[in-house]
Helix-turn-helix domain-containing protein
Amino acid sequence: MYDFSKVIEKSPPQLEFEDFFTSLKSLCAVRKGKPGQKFNLEQSDKRLCFILFSGTGLVKRVNDSLVLSTIHGPCIVGLQDIFHVKSDVQVSSTSEVEYSLVVASDLFSWAEEKGLWKNMCYMLMLSSTRFSEYQKETVGVSNYELICNLLYSLNKESFEIRATTTALEYIQTRSMLSRSGIMKTLSSLRIGGYITISKGLLIKINSLPKKF
């Protein structure tokens, strides 16, 4: 899935991010949040940016709660849809987090004042690159390929997520596939020895066939 950290780990401009987020703390107060908190990106008709300094969360589509991405601090959510009339995403924390909510226009003014537009552009370029990968994984693929991609994604998640989220739940919240269709495919893969599942949790991917 759209995991911002996958790109950061393979990209060189680490210093750009460190400077950017260190400086950001002078703009906004850093708050602490608990797992399960939800954050809307609008307040009093003003567009907000969610700044995640540490911790993990999910970005969900507002109209149907479809999970669009997993995020790890440090990152920013809210710049990607700034030209929409209303924000179409919501953030929910999956761990304890350190975060801030900043009015988008204030963030732009701050970047201009501090000369940090280049740093912000790196953030957007990385988001754009990873979103392109997300589209390759989810758009124009068969239902089976989508399930496989999401199984691989689940397998790369943190231990906490893998230990508390069933494969069915993970796939269903990140796709428009039916519950029965997902269960049928998972059952067939388990019986065939391609995956190991215990109490609904993905334990191991042995080898997923290209076609099934």
Observations:
- The radius of gyration is 18 Å.
- The chain has two domains: 2-138, 143-205.
- The longest strand covers residues 46-54.
- The helical segments are 4-8, 14-24, 104-114, 117-138, 143-155, 159-164, 167-172, 179-191.
